[in-house]
Amino acid sequence: MCSLAHRFMLVTILMVLVSRSQAANAPSKLIQDICKETAESHGTYDGCVSALELDPTADSADIGKLAKISLQLGISNTTDTQNYIKKLIKDATPESQKTLSSCLSSYLAATASFKSALSELSEDPLSANYDSKVAGDDVQECEDEQERDKAQIPGLATRNNYGKLYSAIAFVVTNHLPQS
Ligand SMILES: *[C@@H]1O[C@H](CO)[C@@H](O)[C@H](O)[C@H]1NC(C)=O
């Protein structure tokens, strides 16, 4: 019943499946390059790869598409943090109100900067590059405000890191766009 040929076929099929799933897990060459460069200024290589791969089309994207993806992820991530801060504001103590509303303004600005960059991508890559950087500075404002107020807002440090990560990624990607 279970001939040698059958076993051989089974092993071959298994090997093909394993190598395919490994290929699917490997980030594209472009993502590898972008994330190596990003890791020099912010976070880790792996953090950058998983941040981009939240979009399932990232691995097949060219540089223009990847710029779009990184900015869109920056927009959705900072918008989510805006909503998080809005929820916290509802039951915040008077002391943390000030920090939180300042952070909310910072995040409104950060999302707006990512949006400007996205709208500038095709016409003006230089401005898109600049605004990608500004988004990270906006997030930094929230971090600075927390330090000035000596406030510890739960979950916000992690989210600030996400915001700055997408800014750092978008800055690197838009820096590699062909200049028109
Ligand atoms: C924000 O980005 C981080 C890092 O990629 C990710 O872990 C998190 O799930 C994102 N949050 C949302 C709401 O997209």
UniProtKB/TrEMBL annotation:
Molecular function as annotated in GO: enzyme inhibitor activity
Source superkingdom: Eukaryota
Keyword Ribonucleoprotein part of the UniProt annotation: no
Keywords, comma-separated and alphabetical: Signal
Domain Pectinesterase inhibitor stretches: 26-171
Signal sequence region: 1-23
Name this protein carries in UniProt: Pectinesterase inhibitor domain-containing protein
Organism: Salix dunnii
